Amino acid sequence: MTQVPLVGMGTINFEFFKIKTGSVDGARAQFEEMIQDLVGIIHPDFSTVEANPGDWGIDAYLGSLTGGDVDVWQSKYFIDDFGASQKGQIREAYEQALKCARREGYTLASWTLCMPRNLDGPNEKWWTDWKKGKEKANSVKISLWNQAKLRSLLLSEDASSIRNHYFNPTVSIPDMPYRPTVSLADFDQYEGALFVRQLRHAGMFEYDDAKEEFFNAEILSHEVTDKAVVEEMEALARSKAELSSLWAQRFNTSCQVNPTGPLVGLYVDVMDAVRDHHPKLPASIRSGLTHAFGMVHQRVNDGRAGWARDYRDVAKDHLQSSDLPKMPSHKIEVDVTDEVAGGETNG
């Protein structure tokens, strides 16, 4: 799976909560969670009260609800408007917090309103006057975490994980599927190819699958070369180099184990290694397992690998006596079923 950023792209914009959740109610709930997370950065031992049905006017608090001083944070997702209705909700939320404190026997020491907007001049004056009046009447310290304050908190180093979680979220998407396997219509066209001759020379006589693997690797190589996308060309070169290394390591080992006799098991050992290594190949060219097998056959067909100790002599004789087969010019019919990782048994 690949992690990709969603729409937020890291910009602190509280409107994004509505876009991400699809509703104002969803945005309100997510804003409340963010406030709790920010309080937790400053006061790791904070807590909250689940609404059942009311929340005691608390979204986050510090202290003990069984007695003593309690600091309360209340979130209000006022994102679009701020008028008489919003002012009424602020008054009601504060009175609810004060009422619950008196009822439950603890002291409301401070009350902080959190909202994702800054106030204009007249509303800032209203807030200041209302705050002073309530602080004088109830001896409760009242504060405001507005948009500017919240941005400041979110931009702090301690809050980087919270900022990324809410404003630079990622989503998992499936990796690109492997490219489809193309059926080879005419197996005879590769009958005189070097990679087939090398298979025969090593004592193997069932090679139709190898022809189809080679055919698909040729298509992949031509498509990547024709598109000339640097990233894909580099990925193809890297894939071929890694697969070539798998062959060379096992060829050398096989020669050491069998100093004089045939390299029995070399083909199977190499293709098993290719199968195991396949998930590690660059994803950008979407090479399926058939293509990976085919890239090994391509190297054999270039005379740079083989399945017998004297593969170089076989290649030299072949190049002197015949031409390599060319890419077929007939119409290609694509199998409608895409390959899936580990789902092939070719090779």
Q: Approximately what portion of the residues adopt beta-strand conformation?
A: 5-15%
Mean residue pLDDT:
87
Number of helices: 12
The CATH topology of the largest domain: Restriction Endonuclease
User: How would you characterize the largest beta sheet?
Assistant: 4 strands, mixed
Which CATH C-level class of the largest domain is it?
Answer: Alpha Beta
CATH architecture of the largest domain: 3-Layer(aba) Sandwich
Q: How does the helix and strand content classify structurally?
A: alpha/beta
Shape: rod-shaped
SSE run: EHHEEHEHEHHEHHHHHH
Tell me the total number of β-strands. Answer: 6
Low-confidence stretches: 1-5, 324-347
Helix content: 40-55%
N-to-C span: 27 Å
Cross-sheet strand order for the largest sheet: 2-3-4-5
* Computed CA radius of gyration, to the nearest angstrom: 35 Å
How many structural domains?
A: 2
What does this structure look like?
With 347 residues, the protein is an alpha/beta fold. The chain has 2 domains: 172 residues, Restriction Endonuclease; 135 residues, no CATH class. The chain contains 12 helices and 6 strands. Helix 9 runs antiparallel to helix 10. The chain starts with a strand and ends in a 26-residue tail after the last helix. The relative contact order is 0.11. The N terminus and C terminus are likely disordered.
